Structure formats: C-alpha cells, structure tokens
Amino acid sequence: MPLKTIEINSIKLEFDKEKTKEYRTIFNMPCDCQNCRNYYEHVKNNFELVEYLSGFGIDFNCTEEVFSWNWGDDNDSLIHHEGYYGVFGRIEGEEFDFEKFGVKISFQKCASVPCDRTGEYFWICIEGDFPYILDEKRDLPISFSPKKERLNFVNKINTVFKK
C-alpha cells in the first residue's frame, strides 16, 4: 500500500497507515498499570481523538509509552499523562504541536528509544491533565518530608552510637 501524504500546519507528513496498524510487539502492548488504564479510559471517551489517531493507523490502547505524574497527593489531584504512539513514516519539516480535542497533540521526529521498530517513523504524543476516573481506589504517590526523613536517619545513627 502506498504512503499516505497529508499536510498539517504547513508541514508535510508521509506515513504508512497499514504498517502502523499492524505493528504489535511487546513495546506497544497495552499496559495494565493504574496510570496507563486511567490514560486509556480518557482517550477512549474522547471519540474525536480516537478517530483522529485511527486515521494514522493507531490503536489508542497501543502506546509505546505513557508517562504520568500526579499534580498533588490527594484523590482530587489531576494526573498529567503523555502517551507516545509510533507511526511508520516521516515528518518533512519541523516538529510541531497544537491543541485539539481537549489535548495537546505533538508530532515529533523519532529519537533513539528502546524498541524493535525499523525504518522511518515519527511519534504522535497525546498530552493532557486528567482527573482520576477509574472505578477503583486510587494509588496515590507516597509523600515524604526530606527534613523528617533526615531526622529519622539521624535518630537511628544516634541510637546505634549510644549502645
């Protein structure tokens, strides 16, 4: 099947939709961790975004990586998610991004990453701040006070030397 060519923001993209659609390895299988499942659930509920990604041959559940971090340490804090999808093809021009469908969409030229993909490819990154929406208890990050931890360590050392 020939490469498909489109233009976005005056930048030409050539890609192989079928090859992208068929590419499945351990590097882009759905992750079952809580942060990834929260990301997938948000994307799944964003029908326009799912349709947009499928235009490139992307299954929204098959990211190469999802990076997530909490903006706080309570149940109501947002989670920043970045989902990276590999597309077989190339960007002719500069990398670019824009906001659409309630997320930031970035087109990035490939960088050296651990995957078994061969040939030319580029990344589409979906980025946004999302609430936690899974129907299960949220695993919150462990908070610690560096000062408190240092004091506990000092107390332990003092206990050892007092013996």
How would you sum up this structure in a few lines?
By secondary structure, the protein is of the alpha+beta class. 26% of the residues lie in helices and 32% in strands.
Order of helices and strands: EEHHHEEEEEH
CA-to-CA gap between the ends? 77 Å
Described by strand count, sense and barrel closure, the largest sheet is:
7 strands, antiparallel
> What's the multimeric state?
single chain
**How many DSSP E strands?**
7
Radius of gyration: 21 Å
The general outline is globular
Ordered list of secondary-structure elements with their pairings:
Layout: E1 4-8, E2 11-15, H1 17-22, H2 34-44, H3 47-54, E3 65-70, E4 79-92, E5 96-100, E6 103-109, E7 121-130, H4 146-162
Antiparallel strand pairs: 1-2, 2-4, 3-4, 4-7, 5-6, 6-7
Distinctive features:
163 residues, alpha+beta, 7-stranded antiparallel β-sheet, 4 helices, 7 strands, globular
Task: Tell me what you see in this structure.
The chain is α+β, with helices and mostly antiparallel strands. The protein has 4 helices and 7 strands, in the order ββαααβββββα. Strands 1, 2, 3, 4, 5, 6 and 7 form a 7-stranded antiparallel β-sheet that branches. It is globular.
